[in-house]
Amino acid sequence: xxxxxxxxxxxxxxxxxxxxxxxxxxxxxxxxxxxxxxxxxxxxxxxxxxxxxxxxxxxxxxxxxxxxxxxxxxxxxxxxxxxxxxxxxxxxxxxxxxxxxxxxxxxxxxxxxxxxxxxxxxxxxxxxxxxxxxxxxxxxxxxxxxxxxxxxxxxxxxxxxxxxxxxxxxxxxxxxxxxxxxxxxxxxxxxxxxxxxxxxxxxxxxxxxxxxxxxxxxxxxxxxxxxxxxxxxxxxxxxxxxxxxxxxxxxxxxxxxxxxxxxxxxxxxxxxxxxxxxxxxxxxxxxxxxx
Length: 291
Prior knowledge:
The protein is an alpha+beta fold and 291 residues long. The chain is 32% helix and 21% strand.
């Protein structure tokens, strides 16, 4: 995802997080194009305030396609709720995201993450599957740096295994997705920006916070692994903040009460099991198309 304006990308490096949110919320929004491969209206452009211009993505509520399993007109608010919960973790998985008015009414506005034109972040790989149909052997043959997800067939008919890196940044995203019940963690929703080449962002969180189990992801390679001390500490803090802190109030402004309660229940289930959940028993556990 290359940038629509390098000058705006350079400006964001010098702003603190509060200033970025102020520009996204109150800046003049100018739309300059549309991302045509998105399911819902996804626009890109810029926001400008007091001489500062930032590139952004804008998804108006009016452009959301009706879905049978999510209430109409709620996807933009779910994106903002995912940002609020991401901030509470301290992991900064979701780029700064706000609700605001735009040319077509209210919608979410998110900081654009500038990435290299090739978008080659080396977090996913296709490994040769030259073994007896046991995907776990693919990771072993490639070394412990990979976690297998599923067997696939290449365009030339050869079998392979789709795998992701055994990367702590991705483990955090896997845990985050389990909390927000992300139904759409595709490979293309993982971004490594040019401004922070050591940081991994996650985008497109409209299909989150459903009260029913919807978890679909390409990060199943961590399934069954212990949460680890850091993730447990973060989840315990989220549980407390949802009960009595500001986080619960912020989510209550964006989600139904049942969805907030279900989020806290998922956190408690993760803490009780002390493991990253797996795809077993889930219908269509991998989003399609996977990228």
